[in-house]
Amino acid sequence: MALCTQRYTLVGFSKEVDRRPLNFVRPIPANRICRACGVVPRVAALLPCLHVVCKTCYDQCRLNDGNSCPLDGSLCSDEDVDWRDFPADTLLRQQVKCWNEDNGCEVVTCAFKLHEHFLEDCDYHTTSCLKCSAAILCKDVCAHLRSDCTARTLPRMHGAPRTSPSDPEAIVQALNASLDARIGEMTSRLGQVMSESSAQSDRLNELSHCMNTIKEALLQPRASGACTEQSGVPEAAFGVAPVGAVERILITHGDRLTEISRSVSSLGNTLNQAMEDAKRTSIEKLEQNASDLRMLHADVSEHMTASTDVLEEITQSLSEFKAILKKELKPAAVLSPETTAASPRVSVEQIERRGEVSQNTNDAESCRIVLKGIAPIKEYVNLDGLYDYIGEKIYLSGYHILAGLKLVKDDEGVGLHARIKILKGVNDDFLEWPFYRNIKLTAVHPSSSQERHCVSYAFRSLTHFGKPGLVGNKALYFPEGSLRLEDLEREGYVDNDKLVITWELVPLPVSQ
After folding, report:
1. What is the spatial distance between Cα 228 and Cα 162, in angstroms, rounded to a whole number?
2. Which end of the chain is more exposed for a tag (fewer CB within 10 A), N or C?
3. Which keywords are on file for this protein (predicted)?
4. Which CATH number fits domain 7-97: 3.30.420.10, 3.30.40.10, 3.40.190.10, 2.120.10.30?
């Protein structure tokens, strides 16, 4: 589902784009989106309550005695459902953004070409570095490795969800992702420091071994000297060789000790610098995290405050509406018993008043419709396939109806059809039911007396033409008879981007 965005998921159009979210440049009409699951289906069901659902959701609406709308619970039968097809070529010609838009790709192309671009032409695919696990573009992998994992990383992991300033949960998730990334960086840096410390420990062990060797060599002459004194042998005979050996050992290890000393000093400086860098980086990141948390707290507080204000306004409005409703219903409740117990004379007066109302609403047989904005309407029909002009509420021949028009695209162009919806009216108890009249559409020429007309013939249907309830009957249009919009434009019926149509009820012959 798409929420305040132009990101939609298609179902039933093409295996290359189905079930993958697409970012459209222009929004898709709301009457093409399933109100239950948010997908854009190839075939959608328009329920009598005017909610649109996909076939998968409609199959879940079935009950023992019919179907129930998943949104408002209203009941309907299969015959009352209007199945609408969304032409695939119409939708797949619309412009969409590349799936790698978050990674920097700015390509905008037709929906049916997106799969080919994504697989063959897009240079913004991502991968994870095997050394540091950072998200990087495939084309930047070698440069990233040459920089010792410090360059050309993406600002966030591939596929991370977009966040909205008004969505606290999304902000928290984004902050957690940022913290995880920074913890990974610190872990990598500390691992490097530990590796350097291990190397330093090996060097110190080597130095200790050398010192022990020298100590043993120095102790050897003393032991030899003691033995010489006891045996009376001259000291020079036994002492020269050990002392010379010590000198050779000292000379051999002198350079090595100097090198080790320099290495120890250098490693100490490196270790101190690394610790300072890690400390400074940790402090900076902690300060940044603290700042992010403060901003998050402020955003959440603002969001909660705004939500509280809205809820208070809604509560106040409901209270006012409830008070008005009680005020309006109280007189009706008081008058109902009196009306029930009224004398026959009162009933006669009521019938006379109804007769006056019926006389006032029975005179008109036709009405005039001025359809403005023909050019944008025609463009919409060519894109969406159809357009409904619901019309205004009016009494014709005593019937309370919505006299409207429906423009439908077909192989020959755009057809203009009659549309009707029977509403509950004041004359319903005195009229003949079901409604059974032909409907005539007449195009009025703005500068001459010529006319074009078509007649839509009546048929029996209690669903559409039976005595209406509180919400009226189901609307319908007549697909058989139509005026061709292209002919009307060519013959000059469209003037100043508007078209005048006479909508007329035609009585049937007595034999019918």
Report:
1. 89
2. C
3. Metal-binding, Receptor, Zinc, Zinc-finger
4. 3.30.40.10
**Residue range 483-497: average pLDDT?**
93
145: tokens are 């490795």
Quick check: 239 and 228 in contact, CB under 8 A? yes
Contact, 368 vs 501, CB < 8 A? yes
Higher-confidence residue of 457 and 353: namely 457
Which 3-state string (H, E, C) describes 418-448? Answer: EEEEECCCCCHHHCCCCCCCEEEEEEECCCC
Residues paired with residue 441 on neighbouring β-strands, in sequence order: 454, 503
3-state secondary structure of 182: helix
d(CA 81, CA 78): 5
User: CB–CB of 188/132 below 8 Å?
Assistant: yes
pLDDT 10s digits, 244-276: 665 666 676 667 777 777 777 777 788 778 778
Determine the angle formed by the axes of helices 235-340 and 168-231, rounding to 10 degrees.
170
Please name the helix (run of DSSP H) or strand (run of DSSP E) that holds residue 364, with its range, or none.
Answer: none
> In Å, how far are 29, 322, 372, 373, 418 from 378, measured between CA atoms?
15, 44, 11, 9, 17
81 Cβ contact partners less than 8 Å away, ≥ 6 residues apart: 45, 46, 47, 48, 58, 67
Q: Which residues pair with residue 477 across a beta bridge?
A: 419
CATH number of the domain at 366-506, out of 2.60.210.10, 1.25.10.10, 3.40.50.300, 3.60.15.10? 2.60.210.10
Residue 23, beta-bridge partner list: 7, 97
Q: Which two tokens stand for residue 19?
A: 């079930």
Whole-number Å distance between alpha carbons of 26 and 37 = 21
CA distance 208 to 216: 12
Instruction: Give the rounded distance of the alpha carbon of 50 from its chain centre.
Output: 22
Of 142 and 302, the one with more pLDDT: 142
Strands (E), 282-436: 366-372, 386-396, 399-410, 413-422
DSSP 198-256: HHHHHHHHHHHHHHHHHHHHHHHHHHHHHHHHHHT--HHHHHHHHHHHHHHHHHHHHHH
Residue spans of the domains in the chain: they are 7-97, 263-313, 366-506
Amino acid type, 341: A
Between 188-202, 286-300, 332-346, the lowest mean confidence (pLDDT) is in 332-346
Cα–Cα distance between 185 and 135 in angstroms, integer? 13
Number of H helices, E strands in the chain: 10, 23
> What's 482's DSSP letter?
-
d(CA 367, CA 420): 13
Q: Which residues pair with 63 in a beta bridge?
A: 66
